[in-house]
Each structure stands twice: as C-alpha cells, then as structure tokens.
Amino acid sequence: MRLGDQTNHYLLGVATIAAPAFWLTSILFGVFTWQPSLKVVTTSFFIESALIYPVLEELFFRGWLQGKLKSYAWGAYRLWGISVANLVAALSFALLHLQSQPALWAVLIIFPGLIFGSLKDRYNTVVPSVLMHVYYNAGFFILMNR
Length: 146
Fold this sequence. Notes:
Blueprint (H helix, E strand, L loop, with lengths): L2 H26 L14 H28 L2 H4 L1 E2 L2 E2 H14 L5 H6 L1 H14 L3 H18 L2
Antiparallel strand pairs: 1-2
Helix pairs in contact: 1-6, 1-7, 2-4, 2-7, 4-6, 6-7
C-alpha cells in the first residue's frame, strides 16, 4: 500500500469517527435542545434532511464554490493542512445554516464542513463528502429520534 493510500484511509477513518463525537458533544452541551421533538417527523423530512440537502449542499459548497476558489493560487494555499478554499467554503456553509438554526449550531457546523472539504481536497471529487454528509445528517436524525 502506498503512503497516499494510507493517508486516504486515515482521513476517512477520522471523518467517520468524528461524526458520533460531533453528535454526542452537541447533545451533551445542549446545542440541539432548542429543536422541537423530532419524533413526529415524517419520512419525507428524513429524506430531505438526510439525503437531498446533503447532496445539494455538497454539490454547491464543495463541488462548485470550493472547486472554483481552489482554482486560484490563494485558494489552494494551505493553513494547518486546510486549503483556504476549504476554509472559505466551510465558513460559507456555516453562514447558510444561520438562516434556520441558532448561532452556536452554525458555528459548530464549521467543523464538519472542514471535514467534508478535506475529503473533497483529498479525493478531488464530491462523492466522499456527499456520502459523509449523508452519514452525519442521518446519524443525527436517528439519534434525535431514539
């Protein structure tokens, strides 16, 4: 196995483990207590929040925005291993969530946004970030509906 392959597997492992850590930390610190009970949600709400929105958000933020920004020299520049394009896309992703969610949640969403962006940078496709975003949203949905 080449070093690049090991690094790719490491990134996927970290991203996969980070999701439950993110869910549990957010719940323990009361970030999601503002939400009404999700026990009454419909299947269509699950499909929207766990499947449709992650695909659309990843196509826009990682596929288009991050890809466009990374085409500039400054966008490809890395700070602490994170491309500036990824950082800008993650911050924009968090700002979008301010429209419908509390500020603390939007701030916390920067971290998964950076993970999704790192997957886009590493694999040069949105497929891994879409799959991870679906995993994050579906896991949160299921956890909140226990």
